[in-house]
Specification:
The longest helix is centred in the first third of the chain and has 20 residues, at 124-143. The chain has helices spanning 17-31, 36-40, 47-62, 64-74, 84-99, 104-117, 124-143, 154-163, 168-175, 192-201, 240-249, 266-273, 286-299, 343-346, 350-366, 389-398; strands at 181-185, 207-208, 215-218, 235-237, 256-259, 278-283, 304-307, 322-328, 370-380, 402-404, 411-413, 423-430. Helix 1 crosses helix 5 (84-99). The chain has 16 helices and twelve strands.
Length: 434
């Protein structure tokens, strides 16, 4: 599948100063602490321009540490703090020179022109000299980039290498690659087979999976507005690994179900599509809960939404127990780096312990909300054992009324396996005699 990818990667040319300027602005936002999604959100570019912007930004972030190492070799001294935009400019230019399809002279000229846009005209000659030096010496410079940590921060590479000594190179390769586009067909509105035929009529061949007729995978990203029935809610974008959640929890008719950390709403909508008609959804952020509402409105789901901290049950729970609970717990996101490459730059070692504590707090708070005989699905998009297997083992040890339920789709899924994101699932059942 991977060799067929086009999509964003097909847009390997910058189509104007607006795209380049926006790319610098987005990297500035990420550097200030924004997620790349949040930094991209206000950008008004559409169509090919937006695809090019995303290719530039996401690609540069995937290779950021390597590009930084290149910059250090090309510059006699680091940029001053007030000249950070020049650093972003150089990183983007180096990425395009390494991976773009335009003539090198055009790439250099266009990025040199951007020194005016960032109000650093004095750097024009310097930027031109640095980029042309790279072109002259690129073979030697690229060959010298020996990266033991494969584009990951040293602390994260060490943890992944220790946890997965055999799989570490494959994990790194997946994290450093552009993902495919996974779709979930809304079976309440259209037949999956019919939808697949509509894609084929557009010249888009989708691959299916054995565990769900509604899960389809396109080899590369496309503008979602061009998908058949997008505005009518016929289809949603959702990675295959994320789609597993609703199938594992498998809502039954009449069950009372809670989605405890619902934003952005993809799993909530999927549970509803599979027949969860008595569904409550919580998120501690009222702003993020609006995204859940928007997702449900587009796909037609009717769910009771409430802004609340799921662990603080006194603020939202009426005492009526649930038949099933989905806890898609806050985590480090180390399984979705290929989709959110800024994670490798924003995440810090101390974030792991903080995530583990928050996950344990949610598990403890929600367990009393589950009826005896009910089931709780614990999920993260992390690959770190502390957040996953170790977290669940410790919880089961603390609770004699908790037992694991066997399911073929649970356990740790690593990035790139079956071309999916990295996810962890554990299905727990509360003792019926509790």
């Amino acid at each position: 599948m991977k060799e067929m990818r086009t999509g964003i990667e097909r847009a390997k040319s910058t189509s104007g100063g607006a795209v380049r300027k926006a790319a610098i602005t987005v990297l500035r936002g990420v550097d200030s602490g924004q997620t790349v999604d949040a930094a991209l959100l206000p950008v008004s570019l559409t169509g090919t321009d937006r695809a090019t912007l995303q290719w530039l930004v996401l690609g540069t972030l995937r290779e950021f540490l390597s590009v930084q190492a290149l910059s250090a070799k090309l510059l006699r001294k680091p940029w001053r703090e007030e000249d950070a935009d020049l650093g972003f400019l150089l990183s983007l230019a180096l990425f395009e020179l390494r991976h773009g399809q335009r003539p090198a002279f055009a790439v250099v000229n266009d990025w040199v022109e951007m020194t005016e846009a960032v109000k650093k005209p004095w750097a024009r000659g310097l930027m031109n000299a640095v980029l042309r030096r790279y072109l002259r010496e690129r073979e030697v410079l690229d060959t010298a980039l020996v990266d033991r940590d494969l584009g990951h921060p040293a602390w994260l590479a060490a943890r992944l290498r220790a946890a997965y000594p055999q799989d570490w190179p494959a994990i790194a390769a997946a994290n450093n690659s552009a993902p495919p586009l996974w779709l979930r067909v809304n079976t309440q509105r259209v037949d999956p087979g019919a939808y697949r035929r509509l894609l084929a009529e557009q010249g888009r061949e989708a691959e299916g999976v054995t565990w769900s007729a509604a899960a389809l995978c396109l080899p590369a990203s496309v503008p979602v507005a061009t998908l058949p029935g997008w505005d009518a809610g016929w289809v949603a974008v959702q990675d295959g690994a994320a789609q597993l959640a609703a199938h594992i929890l498998a809502p039954r008719e009449g069950e009372r179900i809670l989605d405890a950390c619902a934003a952005p709403g993809g799993k909530t909508a999927h549970l509803w599509a599979l027949g969860a008609t008595r569904l409550d959804a919580l998120d501690r952020s009222a702003e993020r809960l609006n995204r859940v509402r928007e997702t449900l409105e587009r796909q037609g789901g009717e769910v009771h939404l409430q802004a609340a901290d799921a662990a603080e049950t006194a603020t939202w729970w009426n005492g009526e127990t649930y038949d099933a609970i989905l806890l898609d717990a806050p985590c480090t996101g180390t399984g979705v780096i290929r989709r959110h490459p800024d994670i490798r730059l924003r995440r810090q070692p101390e974030d792991v312990a903080e995530a583990v504590a928050q996950q344990a707090r949610l598990l403890e708070g929600l367990w009393p909300c589950l009826r005896p005989g009910g089931r709780l699905l614990y999920a993260t998009c992390s690959v770190l054992p502390e957040e996953n297997e170790e977290q669940i083992a410790a919880f089961v040890q603390r609770h004699s009324d908790a037992r694991r339920m066997a399911h073929p789709l649970t356990g740790q899924r690593l990035p790139g396996q079956e071309d999916m994101d990295g996810f962890y699932y554990a299905l727990l059942e509360k003792d019926a005699c509790a």
